[in-house]
Structures are given as structure tokens and as C-alpha cells.
Design a protein that fits this description.
By secondary structure, the protein is of the alpha+beta class. It has helices at residues 2-21, 111-116; strands spanning 37-40, 46-53, 56-63, 67-73, 78-79, 85-98, 120-134. 19% of the residues lie in helices and 43% in strands. Strand 2 (46-53) and strand 3 (56-63) form a beta hairpin. The relative contact order is 0.26.
Length: 136
């Protein structure tokens, strides 16, 4: 029951965020090489992703253990001094997929192929995105 509520809350947050940002990108964008920067999370750790525009927090998303997410950006990521924290700036696309919904395939898939058809896609322009690995 609690897991269902957590999953429902996560998907509600993501859907709301997509409406707030008001930008839905072409789902095939991540399949092309037009994104110079790509970051893929591990499903073994929880993460917090904060999206800011002009210094104002637009949204914060926490992905639980078991959720894969990726960030695509038109600018190189900024590695901070804080371990487990990566920043992205400019045009950004965030994709999310529960590990339980990994597509069945006849062979191994790389991270980009796995996230290319992720069920959740959030896109924004002129934003700052910070991804933090949450350590229990």
C-alpha cells in the first residue's frame, strides 16, 4: 500500500512538473546524437533533481531506489566538489523509468537505448538542473 502511494505520488509530481514547465520535447530527441551531454543514474541509489530558472526553484523531484533517470543537456555537465552532485545548464531533458518497467529485449541494451523510450520525459530551456545522489 505504501509503495503504491509512493509510486502514485512520484508520477503525480512528474506529471505536474511537465505541465508547469509547459515544454514537451520530441521523444526521439534522445535517440539522436544532438545532445552533447548525457548523464545516466544508477537505480541502486535514490536521487534528488532540482530544476531552477533564473535562480527560482521550479520543481524538485526525488527518485527512489529502483528508478532510473537520465539527463540530456546541450552544455557539458559541471562536476561539483560535492561527491554525487552534477549540474546541468541550458536546454535540458530529464527522462525517468522504473526499473520494474525495463523493456524485455533479446540482448543487452546500453543506457541510451534503455532511456530513449522512457515513459516520463520532462524538457525545459534556460534552466539549471542539479542532480544529487541521496545517501541514507
Amino acid at each position: 500500500m505504501a509503495r503504491t502511494n509512493l509510486s502514485r505520488a512520484l508520477w503525480t509530481t512528474v506529471a505536474t512538473l511537465a505541465l508547469v514547465l509547459g515544454t514537451v520535447s520530441d521523444p526521439t530527441q534522445a535517440q539522436t546524437s544532438s545532445w552533447p551531454s548525457k548523464y545516466f543514474s544508477s537505480y541502486a541509489r535514490a536521487h534528488r533533481v532540482t530544476i531552477r530558472r533564473n535562480g527560482v526553484i521550479v520543481a524538485t523531484i526525488e527518485t527512489p531506489v529502483g528508478m532510473l533517470f537520465s539527463v540530456y543537456s546541450d552544455q557539458p555537465p559541471v562536476r561539483t566538489a560535492q561527491e554525487g552532485t552534477v549540474e546541468f545548464h541550458g536546454r535540458v531533458e530529464i527522462r525517468a523509468r522504473p526499473q520494474s518497467e525495463m523493456p524485455a529485449s533479446s540482448g543487452p541494451r546500453n543506457a541510451e537505448e534503455t532511456m530513449a523510450d522512457a515513459p516520463v520525459v520532462i524538457a525545459a530551456q534556460d534552466v539549471d538542473v542539479v542532480s544529487e545522489t541521496l545517501v541514507p
